[in-house]
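Re: the request from the purification team.
They wanted to know what the chain is likely to look like in 3D before they choose a buffer screen. I agreed to run a prediction and write the result into the notebook, where they can find it.
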Amino acid sequence: MTTREPEFPPVPQKMARTAAAGPDMADDTVMVDAHTPATGLSTMPPEIIDVILEFLIPQPPEIGETRPVAYSQLMVDEPWFDFTRCRRGLRSLCLVSRRLGEMARPSLYKNVAILDEAAMLLFFRTLCSKPHYGLWTRYVSCHLTLTENSVIREVRELLPKYLPTFAPAPETGALITAARHFLQMMNQFFPSMVLSEGDFDHVPQALLCFILMFLAKVETVLLQVPISDDQPEYDVLCAQIEGVQDLFRDEPEAIPFQNIRTLLLQGDPELAAQVEDDDCECDMPDTWGAQPRRYSSLFASFPNLTTLEVSSDDGVWCLAPEEFSFLPMDDKPPPPPFMPNIRHIYLHNSVAYPGDLHHLLRNAPQLETLYMAPRGDGALKEMIDDGSSSEHPESLNIALANHAKNLRNLDVSWEDIWGFECLVGPEGRLPSIAEMTSLRTLCVQLALLYGKPSAVLETPLVDLLPPNLVELALEDWWWSNLELLQTLPDWDTQAKVRHYQSQHLYRTTAVRTLTEFARDVRTRMRDLKKVVLLVKIPWTWVLEGAVSLDFHFDVVKSVFLAQGVEFSVKCDEV
């Protein structure tokens, strides 16, 4: 039999970001010659093939990764390496025979990454002609900033090539009908649409909206969003998704987006890398990043959304920019929460300060998990350094007390909040944590519990923690260590020894505090199972060639063990 060309040429001849992204490259099934004896996978029992296919389902990299380079240049330990290899294997299986194609294609479509403009158009073409393919997808990610000029221009240049090849399925449902009308409109108006006049600006957003509508069972969606005011936000995409219900008013059972539980907003990582580059000659903004509040309509349009994950956010977590102020709030009633159903929020590379998290907690009243890893790029914010240690009305401590009744998992940290201590709580502490009876896992810096290192012995650690913890991670970090952290890579052996010797008193007090906590823990915290000490400055505890990290904690570990609690100490760098 003759073979039909697949949607994409063989992977090695293409950039990985096209080949890895092409979920429709198994549209056509390649039949083996009728005279060729069936061997190998074609003769295996389907149960064994299913196990093999399960191992080949590609797992996408974590949020915040840039798109892959050329397929042949990817190294084994790079984030996209396994993803591209797994997709290549599944694609090859789809082209072996009709039987293997039918078995492998659902695995090929389960996790889809759109890595360039051609992949987005080809994926949309496949879904138009074979809508049932979209029912296999559970994860989809778009690694294009849709309002970026280069993306808009590339889509404009590709459409003349691909528009004539679209052949929508002969169905009469609302979605296929709408897609058919969209393609007819594009064919009619495309020749007169002028790129330089903005006629084409919204087309990439419309394409992605249609793709999401076809993926009726998708559970996780990653959108790459702008981090600069030079690129407009996705107002059109949000409005289109918000209006989808009207499109399906005669088919309410077919309304899309019902299975989306996780939304990942990825601040453009390529642009972020340029801004963060020390050698960048560009004008760096004081504060830059993704603006999650601008996507509040998406949170409402995805009725079962429970998890929000954001990379490189700008730290503003209130609906109106003027509401973000370090002055006391006026008498106006606050707007209603714009994340009323979100239960889990993860912030990566964030510039959110304690006052920002106050707004976040207020806008997510059902929140159960809050994780925040700081960007640490010295983003400028208005300073509050009036010499007062009184608590600010928008402090994180007040928010934890008043807006975190359901919080079960808390992990927040900063490198330096000098001048912002009043936005943490009284004297830069979080005393409300001790009253959070719903909290089960906690990762917290010692500075947020005690305020300053000299206070380590003043209050027993057990009095500063909630009673129902199951897992606890204590980060050995104080704001005064920031300068040490910045110079750490340049330390020679003598500098490390000098620092170790200067920390003798601190080590003694810290170990004593941990030992007393271990003795008290079982009577005060009956559910605690695991304690971890996270060390940020390794040379506080380590003396190369003489003292290991665990040396100081043998007694602490044994006391915890006697109480049935696992204790360990970990270090960022040794």
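For the purification team: The chain is about 35% helix and 10% strand.
Please add any questions underneath this entry.
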